[in-house]
Every structure is written in structure tokens, then in C-alpha cells.
Amino acid sequence: MGSLQSSPSHPDYVDLAEKTGFSLEQISILHKRFKQLSHNEDKLRREHLDQITDLQANPIREQIVEAFFDKRNFYQDIEEPVNEISFENFLEVMSNFRPPSDNLSEEQLVKVRLEKLRFLFNMHDTDKDGTITLEEYRHVVEELLSYYEALENETARGIADAAMLEVASITRGHMEPDEFYEGITFEHFLKLLEGFEIESRMNIRFMNMDTTTLCKLECGK
């Protein structure tokens, strides 16, 4: 497979496969993508991801990029701020966008779902305080609505506020518009998405590579 500098060795592939659930073939494909993104460097930085054309039109592009540098998404504990990531870190984050395998047990499926929901929650908990606040939620909704030119900013804010109050009513009971809401905790987040099939919906198109299609290379065999 070549040297470590050009491609991970076979033992490394096996170890990464066990950690992430990707097959050896998928890891090989992802390593090529990693090298393309990093311009053949061993570390990936934010500016590399900012150059991806497929992500530039994504309304939550900033959250996706930051997810790759959020140490909460790595298997090992990291104390210092993350400004660049290794291929292993890249794989760890990408595994959250991978649909679950067909042969998982019920217990394993529950674990996968919990991990994906935690990852999704962390993406929107941008200040890392353990809750999604009104401002954080409003930012996401406004960014999604920004592509509709007919909507003015005040209208977008109104929609975001109404949606947040609806969520608050579900998680904390009836609330008046002028009441202060502290935000959605992860426990509330789990309840809100209970019964919603999210496991196979979390995928991104990454430099002409669809993570759902990537999984089907192996899962469909």
C-alpha cells in the first residue's frame, strides 16, 4: 500500500476499521480524499475544508467544518485547541455521517443512534455549554432561511423564535413569548427526535463523494 506518508499501512487500516466501522476499501478511498483535501500533507486545516466547492453552498457549512476540529468528536481526550487534524481524526468525524451496517444488533443500533445524535447536538452547541440556546437555534434557522431571498431578516427571526418557543413548550411545558428559556439540553434533544429516523439521513457530499454511496460500495455487497 505504499509508505505511511502516502497511505496508511495495512495494520493501520485494520485498527481504523475497528474504530470507525469503515471497511478497508472505504478507508483507502477516504485516505485519497484526505490527501487531496490537505494538498498531500499529513494534517488537515480549516482552510483546506473551506476550499471545497460542494460545501460552499451548504447552509450549515460552518458547523460541518468546525465539527472536524471539535475535540468532543475525537475518541481520545485532547486538552489544547484543535487547529489541524490527522487522518485518524478525519475518519472519526466522517464515521458519524456513515449509515449503520445492516448486520448490527439492536444494542449496537441504539449505540450508533446515540453517538450520531450527540454529534449532531455538538454541531449546533457552538459555544460548548451543553445546551442549544435560542441564539444558537436562531442562527441555524436564519442561515437555512437566508437562501430564500423573499424572506426579510425580521421574518426569518420571527420564524426562528416561533420554532424555538414550540420546542420549549414541548420540553418545558407552556411558555409565554417574553419568558426566558435556557435552551435545549441533550436529554431534551433526544426526546425531541425520538422516533425520527436519523441514522441513514446524516450524510454529506464531500468533494464529489457521497457518504451514503460510499457505504453502499461495501454494504451492498
TrEMBL record:
InterPro entries the record matches: CHP3, EF-hand-dom_pair, EF_Hand_1_Ca_BS, EF_hand_dom
GO molecular function ontology, one term from the record: protein kinase inhibitor activity
Membrane-topology descriptor: Lipid-anchor
UniProt superkingdom: Eukaryota
Subcellular location: Cell projection, Lamellipodium; Cell projection, Ruffle membrane; Cytoplasm; Membrane
Keywords tagged on the record: Calcium, Cell membrane, Cell projection, Cytoplasm, Differentiation, Lipoprotein, Membrane, Metal-binding, Myristate, Nucleus, Protein kinase inhibitor
Any GO BP annotation: cell differentiation
Any one annotated GO CC term: lamellipodium
PROSITE patterns: EF_HAND_1 (PS00018), EF_HAND_2 (PS50222)
Residue ranges of domain EF-hand in the record: 112-147
Homology family: Belongs to the calcineurin regulatory subunit family. CHP subfamily.
PANTHER family to which the protein is assigned, alphabetical: CALCINEURIN B HOMOLOGOUS PROTEIN 3
Protein's recorded name: Calcineurin B homologous protein 3
